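Let us work through a complete example step by step.
Step 1: write down the sequence.
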Amino acid sequence: MTDTKKILLDFLDTVLDDRGYKQRDVHVNEMKTDGNNYTSALFTINVKTEEKELKLFAKVAQIGKEMRAIANADKLFKTEKFVYNKLIHLYNNLQKHLDEEHKFMFPEFYGFHDEYGKETILLEDLNESGYKPHNRLKSMNWDQGRVGVEYLARFHALSFKLSKSDPDGFAKIANQMAYTINSEAANENTINQFIEMVENAVKVLKHEHREKVRNFMYNPNLFDKYNKPLSTPALVHGDYRLSNLLFKRKGHGLSAVVVDYQTVHTGCPVADLFYFIFMGSDEHFRRLYYDKLVNHYYTSLEEALQRLAVDPVEVYPRESFESDLKELLPFVVQTAVLTLPLVVVESESAPKWDSEGADFSTIILKPTALYIQRFTGIINDLIRWGAI
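Step 2: predict the structure and record it as tokens.
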């Protein structure tokens, strides 16, 4: 039995005892992460009791000491605990008057174990309810993009509603959830590895584009705006990409549930929007739908705010949204260089962070054909739009 499986079973016993399921038959199956998760081992669980059958999903911390520091994993686990233990309750209370069709739905939460090195979260298994993940190596289609930005707008609308209904409470949470970088994990070695990442990306570009990307990435103030609020602070997801959405077809419609709240922080709503679009689409899709998708996000945000009895002009007017779009667009380069390689890595090449020997070098991946296609497409767009 693996250490993570034993940790899970011990915690599961506590949760099931607390819920009164004394007689039960438990089966646990470890899943392959396939590049979808780097900090945890993943499990599906089937629990048969006299009263009911439970289908559960669990994540158990599995990350080496050095990568734990580099990834700021202490903060990630703490954030996820806060979201499920507190923020979701606040948000569900704000939207309790809405019909199910217009709510932002969260997975059912069963418990969180916060012992250092054994952090475990237990949730419903959404796959058993018919929700399925998107293939992260394929570009989104319009239907997925449309639904994705609708749910993103609902998530941001709840943050704006909280800031209006409880300004002091929101300010306290916003301060607590400020984005931080673990600067203590940086050293000469990691700086050199950062340069290697940049150069690996730059060398796949046309010669006339390379210096534009280098000049941006080697700006000493590069991280000043990274994941920070601009015009209007909001609680943002931070890792809002296709593989963190599960989709379910309902007749001719499509619904979704958003997962993985480890990176929630106080930031700019547009950062989530850009992350979703550029990490999940190719150049062809954006030529067809980029403007339409951006406009659909803001229209969906207006509608979500109005359902929550909030005037969009008071919390995030169109002028502020447009200003944030323009100011943040160049920073898509940063995400494309540092994050896109991990998003589109082939499963067999996905880095392993669970060993004590894992370090920053595991993030330096050889450019694949898919990465080259996606990255050059992003740079082509940004140059064509005059962003860089």
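Step 3: interpret the result. The chain has a mean pLDDT of 93.
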